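Our consortium's second objective concerns turning raw sequence data into structural hypotheses that experimental partners can test. To show how far this objective has progressed, the report includes one record in full. It was chosen at random from the queue rather than selected for favorable results. The single chain below, 207 residues long, was entered without modification.
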Amino acid sequence: MRVTSQVFVGAMLAATLALGSVSAQAQNVRVRGTIEKLDGNALAVKSRDGADLKLVLKDNAAIRGVVKASLADVKGEVNVAITSRPRPDGTLEAVELRIAPAGQPFNSFHSEWDLMPNSFMTNGALQTSVTGVDGQTLTVKYKVQGKPDEEKKIVVTPKTVIATTVAGTKADLKPGLKVFVAGAPKLPDGSLDVGAIQVEKEIPPPQ
């Protein structure tokens, strides 16, 4: 009976920790929207679903402007972030390809994504690039927690949006421009604590 009680308590503790982890993740908010106003470090944004969001920029927030790039900029083992959707035959076709500037923080992974229905995000290092009849096929290696690295082959077509970012300042955060925040924790008053943000410069960030 004592062993059973210990097992039950252990299971309850594990469940509590798991729920706490899910709750913490749920509080990390991704932002896609349009700037309405900047007042000091407070940025008012209308999200793509119409919600009014208040973003509080950290004093040292990393502000990056999104600019055009091309496949010629994808070389060596450059880090890329590719949003893709599966073709009828299961092949992944790139919707957007974002080149990560050297020296910038980069999280390598592959998972489902929320840019559009049935989309995926692959963040990783370019391994090979082969030109084919239906576009350029990129082989991207990414990290898998607790396992060896894995690879995805993704086709880039003339329709694929290709972009990178350049250093920016708060002066770039102007009303009417599109912004993207990968994830920001929610503060007690409901505002979002933002340490990094991308803003439209030549083209919009992923919306």
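The partners drew two points from this record. The helical segments are 2-26. Residues 139 and 153 are 4 Å apart (CA to CA). Both points have been shared with the crystallography group to help prioritize constructs.
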